[in-house]
């Protein structure tokens, strides 16, 4: 294993000043210098909305929380072959007066440098360096009274629970996980049986590529051009095909999952959200647009019970692997549940119902809507009908409209009572 990384992290990482973000207009990024390894300098990147770009209502809502003695913040961690680009997620929380910060972990997104192996790491505990640095920055900017909700997706969820368990970080009040990769597809026994295979590949070096084919179905569910709701994947920072599973990284995942299986001792509330259905298969099915086509939700939910004493499980019907990118009805339900739960368990503050309803309307309308797809399909059909003189029939597909949920909003009870105590490898 001659190519295993030799990492030297700084005892006290330094963070550059905020500057305009290279990905999203109206946002800022700050580089944190973590140290060096065999591939050069290691950096992470923090992202936030430019404070000067906050709307009047967003400023007012922040101020109201401050006057009541508390500041609220979200700290977001992405998944595998991912980085922060989910503007709609940040805008949702900011619209409620809650400061939103995210991190591009080392060797991902904004933090990936020439000559580095994309996404490669040999111990998920090492991410504690950027987690601690971001937590400290949030406390510095928002004040000692800040209450932070840690949100994390997929591999980011696995890394985050290790950090919370081992360091019990201050100011982190609760953890909300979006389809966290807590267990291998299948179950714990399948991971155990697969471990010798991974170790055999590691004999050729930690960066040995694993023969794990990705059919690309998840990316197809997300991308607007293939029937999804989002154009996010049309503007990648780097070639997503460079992110391939490697033996050292896979062993790090297995080691972390083994820690979860042996039971963690997280002493703050944890929310685990998953889809209601898994579809792991070698052929495409349109129902994948309403399911997790990346991870096994049953394995996730079973492993969740090993995280700590207070674990809440929530099912999002029709949710994708990244629930925040689901179709409007499922997306709205996901944000509604996380909002209601975090208001009670993380912030213990009233979040006015009228603000929540307006924010839910906006996040449900984000992306490429069903009406947009229907208009585009109608236009395409008309064009094809005009040009196909020999055609006797046309087979058109119109995306079904996403009717909004009319169920009672869980945030209503929270608002009244909570003041008491391109590749489909994207986002794994």
From TrEMBL:
Pfam families: Hydrolase_4. Residues 70-277 form the Serine aminopeptidase S33 domain. Residues 371-428 are annotated as: Disordered. InterPro entries: AB_hydrolase_fold (IPR029058), Hydrolase_4 (IPR022742), MAG_DAG_Lipase (IPR051044). Residues 381-409 have a biased composition (Low complexity). This is Lysophospholipase.
């Amino acid at each position: 294993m001659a190519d295993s990384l030799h990492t030297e992290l700084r005892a006290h990482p330094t963070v550059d000043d905020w500057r305009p973000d290279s990905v999203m207009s109206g946002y800022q990024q700050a580089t944190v210098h973590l140290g060096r390894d065999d591939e050069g300098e290691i950096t992470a990147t923090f992202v936030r909305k430019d404070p000067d770009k906050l709307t009047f209502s967003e400023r007012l809502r922040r101020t109201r929380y401050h006057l009541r003695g508390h500041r609220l913040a979200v700290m977001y961690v992405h998944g595998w072959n991912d980085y922060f680009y989910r503007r709609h997620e940040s805008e949702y929380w900011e619209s409620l007066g809650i400061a939103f910060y995210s991190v591009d972990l080392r060797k991902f997104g904004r933090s990936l440098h020439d000559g580095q192996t994309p996404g490669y790491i040999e111990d998920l505990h090492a991410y504690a360096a950027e987690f601690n640095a971001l937590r400290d920055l949030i406390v510095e900017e928002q004040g000692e009274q800040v209450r932070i909700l840690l949100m994390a997706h997929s591999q980011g969820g696995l890394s985050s629970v290790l950090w919370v368990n081992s360091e019990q970080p201050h100011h982190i009040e609760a953890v909300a996980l979006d389809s966290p990769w807590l267990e291998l597809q299948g179950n714990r026994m399948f991971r155990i049986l697969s471990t010798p295979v991974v170790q055999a590949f590691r004999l050729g070096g930690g960066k040995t590529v694993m023969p794990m084919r990705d059919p690309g179905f998840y990316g197809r569910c997300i991308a607007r051009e293939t029937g999804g709701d989002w154009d996010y994947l049309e503007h990648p920072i780097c070639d997503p095909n460079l992110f391939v599973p490697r033996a050292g990284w896979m062993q790090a995942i297995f080691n972390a999952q083994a820690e979860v299986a042996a039971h963690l001792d997280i002493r703050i509330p944890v929310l685990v959200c998953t889809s209601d259905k898994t579809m792991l298969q070698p052929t495409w099915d349109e129902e994948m647009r309403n399911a997790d086509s990346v991870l096994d939700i049953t394995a996730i939910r079973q492993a969740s019970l090993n995280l700590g004493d207070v674990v809440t499980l929530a099912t999002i019907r029709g949710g994708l692997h990244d629930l925040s990118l689901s179709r409007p009805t499922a997306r709205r339900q996901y944000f509604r549940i996380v909002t209601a739960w975090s208001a009670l368990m993380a912030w213990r503050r009233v979040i006015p119902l009228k603000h929540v309803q307006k924010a839910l309307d906006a996040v449900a309308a984000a992306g490429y809507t069903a009406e947009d797809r229907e208009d585009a399909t109608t236009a395409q059909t008309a064009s094809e009908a005009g040009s196909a003189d020999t055609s006797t029939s046309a087979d058109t597909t119109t995306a079904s409209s996403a009717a909004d949920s009319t169920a009672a909003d869980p945030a209503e009870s929270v608002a009244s009572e909570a003041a008491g105590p391109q590749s489909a490898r994207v986002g794994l």
